[in-house]
């Protein structure tokens, strides 16, 4: 906790009762950020510099880039914007390439056609879309020379915007990929709802194509994060408290890298299906307890491992059943060795996966439960302060402990996918050793946080220090950037 | 239906009717109802392909937002082709999806479909079974496609061996189309096809 924060809250301590409630809330909300955001430490492998932008800030930023480009190469602003969007907002690169070969850059960015069509100058022409003869003044077109009547353009835009296409809207001609710039669309589309939608979608596209920007993935959050490097680092949105990876946009996942965590999450989604299937379509042999899938209609089962004959329905010994099922015995005569080993392998793979998955799930659940502990701590501190037993500053270490616990357990949860994909070897042994160390300290800390009031403050703070050190050691050794 | 869609379709009819492809009996299109939302198309199997001599009927549905959205086209005539479902007749063709342009017409669609019959794209398949056969055993694919063209699209070239194998399964009491699908799927191996039908 910084000195500044302390003085700030002791000031607030003297304000009136009503204000105080609000202050308490604000104070607690700020706490989370204070612990892990923007505090750059030299040797912290997770430190990352970023800023939070509002929509207006982003618009200003984008417009500045557009203006700079317009000044440098003298093109219309809406063309410049699309050019930057297509070239990932690399202004200096765009300027250099434009000066070298402007028509090539425009062609590559789909702003100019590969071959231009001669524009017909007669006062009446047939619109190739509605096939109506139209006066030339209600026809318009892009640099490619394909001209259509404005009614057709308008409907084309409406249909495209309805399907969330915005910066990607193309000319209506067959095989013509020339993109329609913003001002052309806005000139023709009059419906205010469609205009708003269009501008909203464009903005989304611009942010997505900008290497320094990323939308906060939090629900209904419009914050945009800006960082100069697109690294797999932790970003916390101050508006909605969502904590995510700047590189891939999903939940922060150190020490696991972006590709691995995606693989793991897909696997979890797929394998829960597999696990469901196994529980729905398999039973364990009543004698040797190997898992058996029923792949035929016959209820006379023979375990492929121990050759025990039993009835699928009642799991009882088959000998006690009548002879009317005898015709099904061909399954018995054809024990499939190859399948059996494949099955055993699959079973083993599943076992391994379930081992990691259970722990991953368990820590996720613990995180949820500890969220309640945190709420209780907040409540109890409030009570204590109201009863004049100490000030917030006196009890603040309890909150710090709860936040630190959350942080450590979060990392611990994300060590499991990492371990699952790690090849056997000394590196895995080291990882698992450190993981076990971290796990032990996290559980110790959790124990002490739950019993915070009867734990000595020094003892608790010592435990916090140990847990965080374990966490940092693991992250420092295994977080690959 | 929106005004522009009807106007377009009516004008397109004139275009298709006038075009030289119609004169050569290569493509045809006619309305199924008065409001032009459903049409029936026909394309001739292109020469020097397994579909030569066959006539393929298409089901064309015109969306409200035509021509800003593509027409929905499906094969009614059964066909063995990597980009067309042998079960439903659904077509995998870029211009019927995201590569559609408002300036395209029914005529260009039908001609593109004809071109698709002449040049399959097995790497972008609609029917995985057919595409696999196309890539692994082109000769077998050609035989199967010719057989389907003969049976369903009226092409004259008969595949005698295919016919006799189907007859063989029919004599055992299996339904003809089911037998054909199974045999086509299992490279005309009678035992495997039978096994497939029975499971």
From TrEMBL, chain A:
Bias (Acidic residues) occurs at: 18-40
The EC code for this enzyme is 2.3.2.31
- The UniProt annotation puts the region (Disordered) at 1-40
**Domain of life, source organism:** Eukaryota
Please name the PROSITE patterns in this protein's record: TRIAD (PS51873), ZF_RING_1 (PS00518), ZF_RING_2 (PS50089)
Q: Which GO terms describe its molecular function?
A: ubiquitin protein ligase activity; zinc ion binding
For the keyword Nucleus, the answer is yes
For this chain, the family text in UniProt reads:
Belongs to the RBR family. Ariadne subfamily.
**Could you tell me what this protein is called?**
RBR-type E3 ubiquitin transferase
Automatic annotation (TrEMBL), chain B:
The record's annotation in Pfam families points to: UBA (PF00627), UQ_con (PF00179)
Establish whether keyword Nucleotide-binding is in the entry: yes
The cross-references to PROSITE patterns, in alphabetical order and at most eight, read: UBA (PS50030), UBC_1 (PS00183), UBC_2 (PS50127)
Gene Ontology MF annotations: ATP binding; ubiquitin conjugating enzyme activity
Tell me which domain of life the UniProt entry assigns to the organism this sequence originates from. Eukaryota
For this protein, the record's CDD domains field holds:
UBA_II_E2_UBCD4, UBCc_UBE2K
User: What InterPro entries does UniProt report for this protein, alphabetically?
Assistant: UBA, UBA-like_sf, UBC, UBCD4_UBA, UBQ-conjugating_AS, UBQ-conjugating_enzyme/RWD
Documented EC number(s): 2.3.2.23
Family matches, as SMART domains? UBA (SM00165), UBCc (SM00212)
Tell me the SUPFAM superfamilies matching this sequence: UBA-like, UBC-like
Please report the stretch or stretches of sequence annotated as the UBC core domain: 4-154
Record domain UBA: where: 161-199
Give the positions the UniProt entry annotates as the active site: 92 (glycyl thioester intermediate)
Task: Name the UniProt key words of this record, in alphabetical order.
Answer: ATP-binding, Nucleotide-binding, Transferase, Ubl conjugation pathway
Q: Which family does it belong to?
A: Belongs to the ubiquitin-conjugating enzyme family.
What's this protein's name? E2 ubiquitin-conjugating enzyme
